[in-house]
C-alpha cells in the first residue's frame, strides 16, 4: 500500500503506470475494442493500386500491405508482447532467484560451480545467442519466450547472489540457525522475503527488456510468426515498404518504445522506493 | 602482479572453452540439420548421408567436439559449409567493418553520455537534469531497429543527406553509428550523472569551492576525472552489447560486417561460421573487460593498492 501511494505521488511513475494499464487493457479487451478482425485481409483495405491505406477514414491507423487493419493488429499484438513479457521474464526471474539464492547460500563447490556458470553466461553475446536459438528452433510464441528467458536470467542471478551472500552473514540468520531452524525454513521464510524487492524491481524492468527483445527477434523474422500479430513482426512484414508506408513502421515502433519506457519508469521508481540507498543515483 | 595476470589469462581461456562447449552442444542439439540444408530440398537420403559423413556430422558429439577443439587450439576455425572458405578468413575480412562501426558507435555514446551526464549532475534537480534523465530513459527503451529505420527514413530517404545503405565512406558510417551511439548514450548519461553527483558531494570538491575556484574548473579538472572510472568499466561491458546489436543494425543498413556474416550463416545453418562468430564475440567481450580492468588502476591509483 505504502509503495503504491509513493508510486502515485511521482508524476513520471504515474505516467508509466497509466501507459502500462492502457496496454494491459488493450490486450485484455482486444476483441471488444478492435474494429476489425486482425487477420482479415480486406478488399477495401487496399487502394486501387493495391497499396496500403494511410491513417484516417474507417481504418484509424491505416492498413498494412495485405489490407489488414493496423489498429486491430496492434491491439492483438499487445497480447503477444504482454504474454511473452510476463512469461519470459517470470521464468527468467525465477531461474535467476533460484540460481542466485542457491549459489549464495550453499557456496562450497556447488555454489562456486553455479556462479562460474553464471560468469560464463555473462561472456555470451546475449542477443546473438537468442538469435541463433530462435532461428534454428521452429519459432513460436512459447519458444520465443523460452529463448528470451534463457538469456535474461543471468543478471538477476548475479544480483540475487550478492544480496544473499550479504544476508547470510547477518545476525538474524545466525540467530535462526542457532535456534535450530533448517535450511529450508531459513531460505524460504527468512532469506526469500528479503529478496522480494529485488524480484519485484527486476520483474518490472525485465519486462521492458523482454518486450524489446521479442520485437527485435520478430523484426528479424525469427520471433512470433505471422499471421499472429506481434509489434515486431508487423514491422518485419512492412519493412521493405516503409518508404511508401512509414506509418506501418512508426506506429508499432512508437508503441514498443512507449511500452518499454513505461515498464522502465515504473521499475526505476519501484527501485527508488523499495531500496532507499539507491535513491537518486539513477 | 605476474601471477594475477597469468590467473586472468587462464580464466579467459576457460571462459572461451566454456562458451565453445555450450554453443557446440546447443548447435548439435538443435533440430536444424546442416547436411540437409547443403544438399537442398530434392536431395535423396543417400546424398544427405554422404554429406553428413563428409563433414563428420555422423560422429558422436564428444568426437566432433574434440576434433573441433583440437583444430581450434591450432588456430583453425574450420571451413564454412556453404562457402567452402576458411571461417577465419571470412571473419577477418568482415571484422574491419564491424570494428569501424563499433568504434564509431562507442565514440558517439561516450561523448554524448559524458556531456549530458555532466550537465545533468551539475544542474541536479533542475529542468535540464529532468530532461536529460527522461531522454536517457527513452534512449534505453527504444528498439534499435525502429531507431535505425527512423534515421534512415528521415536522413536518407527524405532529406537525402546520407546514403541508404552500403559501406566505404564516412557518410556511410554516420547513421549506423548514430543508431548505436544515441541509444547507448542513455546508459552512459545516467551513470556519469550518478558518479558525478557522488564526486561533487565529496570534501575535496567543497575545499576547491572554498578556495574560490570557478565552477567550470571544479567540474572539469577536479570532479570529472574521478567520475570517468565507471565509464571505462562500462565500455568493457558495452562491447558485449554491441556484438549482438550489430546483427540488427548491420541488417538494416546493409553493413558488410560480421553481424551480416552471422545472420547469413544462421539462415544456412552454417555451423562453423556461427561457432566462429560466437567465439569472436565472446573473445571481444572478454578482452573488453580485461582492457577496462587494466586501464582502471592507471586512471585511479587507489585501485592499485587494493
Automatic annotation (TrEMBL), chain A:
UniProt-listed GO biological process terms: peptide transport; protein transport; transmembrane transport
Keywords linked to the UniProt accession: Cell membrane, Membrane, Peptide transport, Protein transport, Transmembrane, Transmembrane helix, Transport
Source organism, top-level taxon: Bacteria
Stored PROSITE patterns: ABC_TM1
GO CC entries: plasma membrane
Domain ABC transmembrane type-1: 78-267
Compartments (UniProt record): Cell membrane
Cross-referenced InterPro entries: BP-dependent_transpt_permease, MetI-like, MetI-like_sf, OppC_N
Membrane topology: Multi-pass membrane protein
Any one Pfam family match given in the protein's UniProt record, by short name: OppC_N
Transmembrane segments: 12-34, 82-105, 117-136, 142-161, 199-224, 244-266
Keyword Metal-binding: no
Record family assignment: Belongs to the binding-protein-dependent transport system permease family.
Protein name: Peptide/nickel transport system permease protein
Source organism of the structure: Rhizobium soli
Amino acid at each position: 500500500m505504502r509503495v503504491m501511494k509513493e508510486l502515485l505521488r511521482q508524476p513520471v511513475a504515474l505516467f508509466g503506470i497509466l501507459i502500462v494499464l492502457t496496454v494491459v487493457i488493450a490486450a485484455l479487451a482486444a476483441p471488444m475494442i478492435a474494429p476489425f478482425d486482425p487477420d482479415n485481409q480486406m478488399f477495401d483495405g487496399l487502394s486501387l493500386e493495391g497499396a496500403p491505406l494511410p491513417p484516417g477514414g474507417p481504418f484509424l491507423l491505416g492498413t498494412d500491405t495485405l489490407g489488414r487493419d493496423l489498429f486491430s493488429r496492434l491491439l492483438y499484438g499487445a497480447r503477444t508482447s504482454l504474454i511473452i513479457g510476463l512469461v519470459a521474464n517470470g521464468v527468467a526471474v525465477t531461474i535467476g532467484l533460484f540460481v542466485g539464492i542457491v549459489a549464495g547460500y550453499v557456496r562450497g563447490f556447488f555454489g562456486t560451480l553455479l556462479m562460474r556458470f553464471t560468469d560464463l553466461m555473462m561472456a555470451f553475446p546475449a542477443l546473438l545467442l537468442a538469435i541463433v536459438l530462435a532461428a534454428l528452433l521452429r519459432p513460436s510464441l512459447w519458444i520465443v519466450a523460452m529463448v528470451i528467458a534463457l538469456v535474461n536470467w543471468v543478471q538477476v542471478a548475479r544480483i540475487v547472489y550478492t544480496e544473499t551472500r550479504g544476508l547470510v552473514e547477518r545476525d538474524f540468520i545466525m540467530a535462526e540457525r542457532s535456534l535450530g531452524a533448517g535450511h529450508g525454513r531459513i531460505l524460504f521464510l527468512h532469506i526469500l522475503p528479503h529478496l522480494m524487492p529485488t524480484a519485484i524491481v527486476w520483474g518490472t524492468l525485465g519486462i521492458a527488456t523482454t518486450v524489446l527483445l521479442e520485437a527485435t527477434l520478430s523484426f528479424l523474422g525469427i520471433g512470433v510468426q505471422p499471421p499472429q500479430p506481434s509489434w515486431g513482426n508487423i514491422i518485419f512484414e512492412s519493412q521493405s515498404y516503409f518508404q511508401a508506408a512509414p506509418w506501418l513502421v512508426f506506429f508499432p515502433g512508437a508503441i514498443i518504445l512507449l511500452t518499454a519506457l513505461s515498464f522502465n519508469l515504473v521499475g526505476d521508481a519501484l527501485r527508488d522506493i523499495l531500496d532507499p540507498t539507491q535513491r537518486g543515483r539513477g | 602482479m605476474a601471477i594475477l595476470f597469468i590467473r586472468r589469462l587462464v580464466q579467459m581461456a576457460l571462459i572461451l572453452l566454456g562458451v565453445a562447449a555450450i554453443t557446440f552442444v546447443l548447435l548439435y542439439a538443435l533440430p536444424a540439420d546442416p547436411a540437409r540444408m547443403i544438399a537442398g530440398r530434392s536431395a535423396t537420403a543417400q546424398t544427405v548421408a554422404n554429406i553428413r559423413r563428409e563433414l563428420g556430422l555422423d560422429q558422436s558429439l564428444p568426437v566432433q567436439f574434440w576434433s573441433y577443439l583440437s583444430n581450434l587450439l591450432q588456430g583453425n576455425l574450420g571451413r564454412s559449409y556453404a562457402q567452402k572458405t576458411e571461417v577465419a578468413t571470412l571473419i577477418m575480412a568482415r571484422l574491419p567493418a564491424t570494428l569501424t562501426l563499433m568504434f564509431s558507435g562507442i565514440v558517439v555514446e561516450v561523448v554524448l553520455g559524458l556531456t549530458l551526464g555532466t550537465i545533468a549532475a551539475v544542474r541536479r534537480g533542475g529542468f535540464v537534469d529532468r530532461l536529460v534523465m527522461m531522454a536517457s530513459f527513452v534512449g534505453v527503451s527504444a528498439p534499435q531497429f525502429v531507431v535505425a529505420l527512423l534515421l534512415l527514413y528521415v536522413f536518407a530517404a527524405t532529406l537525402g543527406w546520407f546514403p541508404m545503405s552500403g559501406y566505404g565512406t564516412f557518410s556511410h558510417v554516420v547513421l549506423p553509428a548514430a543508431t548505436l551511439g544515441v541509444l547507448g548514450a542513455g546508459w552512459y548519461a545516467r551513470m556519469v550523472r550518478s558518479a558525478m553527483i557522488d564526486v561533487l558531494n565529496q570534501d575535496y570538491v567543497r575545499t576547491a569551492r572554498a578556495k574560490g575556484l570557478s565552477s567550470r574548473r571544479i567540474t572539469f579538472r577536479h570532479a570529472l576525472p574521478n567520475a570517468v572510472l565507471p565509464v571505462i568499466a562500462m565500455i568493457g561491458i558495452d562491447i558485449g552489447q554491441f556484438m549482438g546489436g550489430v546483427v540488427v543494425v548491420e541488417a538494416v543498413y546493409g553493413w558488410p560486417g560480421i553481424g551480416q556474416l552471422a545472420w547469413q550463416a544462421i539462415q544456412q545453418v552454417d555451423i562453423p561460421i556461427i561457432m566462429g562468430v560466437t567465439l569472436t564475440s565472446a573473445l571481444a567481450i572478454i578482452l573488453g573487460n580485461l582492457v577496462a580492468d587494466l586501464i582502471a588502476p592507471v586512471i585511479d591509483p587507489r585501485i592499485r593498492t587494493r
